[in-house]
Amino acid sequence: MHQEYTVIEGDFVNAGKASSSVKKTLKQLNVEPAIVKRVVVALYEAEVNAIAHAYGGKVLVDIDSDKIKMVVADKGPGIPDIALAMQEGYSTARPEVRDMGFGAGMGLPNMQKNVDKLNVTSEVGVGTTVEMEVNF
Amino acid sequence: MTIREIAKLLDASVCIGENRLDEEVEYGFASDLMSDVLTLKDTPMLITGLCNVQTIRTCDMATLDIIVIVRNKKVTEDMIELAEDNDMVILSCSYSMFKACGLLYEAGIKPLY
Ligand SMILES: Nc1ncnc2c1ncn2[C@@H]1O[C@H](COP(=O)(O)OP(=O)(O)OP(=O)(O)O)[C@@H](O)[C@H]1O
Ligand SMILES: [Mg+2]
């Protein structure tokens, strides 16, 4: 099953639309609640990053019988040092983002904790792609 | 204790979730930081001063479904709608985070960490 969503820069009101829709789909497919939570939390973190740190982008989701693959690809400033960004506590979040309760530098490490496979690629000045996989 | 007892203890109004007031609550977690809420493995009641639609969305993603908003912050229609769609409970009280947490702790609501 393939699903696609668009995320828009600064659109916090709609942040999580893709993740909630995936949550509903996985529930319908009777995926174990603990696994649903891992998937949805990781996807939501990536979605919020595309909205908070980049200029929006696309969310692509592929659901198989045994796993889910998610790609969040944004157009944006990119991440100059991915290893640094992956460190807990590192954040360049703007004040507006912090006002929404984000910007603790915990998102990327949290994605890592929740998924079975994480791959972050980025080109400065172009954008960032986060690929994640969770096995059912 | 039940959600109804919690509402009474905090002198809180029930913004949504009247149907769930007799449910028991065992654990609580207090934070204004949604980043932090997203790292929880368990699903405690959330006590928070952050009052916007993102609070509700984040709780939905983290499968937390009982939320106490402190300091009389205005719970908006879109927050209530989203909570209603997902069968969540929102209580709103005028007490500070400190007082709300103190009362709940004293009444036996357990911390996660
Ligand atoms: N999609 C992205 N585009 C550009 N920079 C990004 C992107 N995702 C993450 N970053 C950079 O990596 C940093 C760390 O990201 P991470 O998600 O771990 O924390 P955060 O978003 O700042 O805070 P939190 O996720 O705790 O709310 C960000 O502050 C930002 O500098
Ligand atoms: Mg983040």
Q: Which helices and strands appear, and what pairs or packs with what?
A:
The complex is a heterodimer of chains A (136) and B (113).
Chain A: E1 2-8, H1 17-28, H2 33-52, E2 56-63, E3 67-75, H3 82-85, H4 95-99, H5 107-114, E4 117-123, E5 127-135
Helix pairs in contact in A: 1-2, 2-5
Chain B: H1 3-9, E1 13-16, E2 27-30, H2 34-37, E3 45-48, H3 53-61, E4 66-69, H4 77-85, E5 89-92, H5 97-106, E6 110-111
Parallel strand pairs in B: 2-3, 2-6, 3-4, 4-5
Antiparallel strand pairs in B: 1-5
Please describe what this structure looks like.
The complex is a heterodimer of chains A (136) and B (113). In chain A, helix 1 (17-28) packs antiparallel against helix 2 and helix 2 packs antiparallel against helix 5. The model of chain A has no long low-confidence stretch (mean pLDDT 96). Chain A has a five-stranded antiparallel beta sheet with strand order 1-2-3-5-4, with helices on one face. Chain A has one domain (2-135): Histidine kinase-like ATPase, C-terminal domain (Heat Shock Protein 90), CATH 3.30.565.10. With 136 residues, chain A is an alpha+beta fold. Chain A has five helices and five strands, in the order E-H-H-E-E-H-H-H-E-E. Chain A is globular, with a radius of gyration of 14 Å. In chain A, 36% of the residues lie in helices and 29% in strands. In chain A, strand 4 and strand 5 form a beta hairpin. With 113 residues, chain B is of the alpha/beta class. Chain B has a single domain, classed as Udp-n-acetylmuramoylalanyl-d-glutamate--2,6- Diaminopimelate Ligase, Chain: A, domain 1 (3-Layer(aba) Sandwich). Helix content of chain B is 35%, strand content 19%. In chain B, strands 1-5-4-3-2-6 form a six-stranded mixed beta sheet. Classes of the chains: A alpha+beta (136), B alpha/beta (113). Chain A binds chain B through residues 12-13, 15-16, 19-20, 23, 33, 37, 40-41, 44-45, 100-107, 110, 113, and chain B through 32-39, 50, 52-55, 57-58, 60-63, 78. Magnesium ion binds at residues 45, 48-49, 102, 107 of chain A. Residues 45, 49-50, 52-54, 74, 76-79, 85, 90-93, 102-108, 128 of chain A line the site of adenosine-5'-triphosphate (ATP).
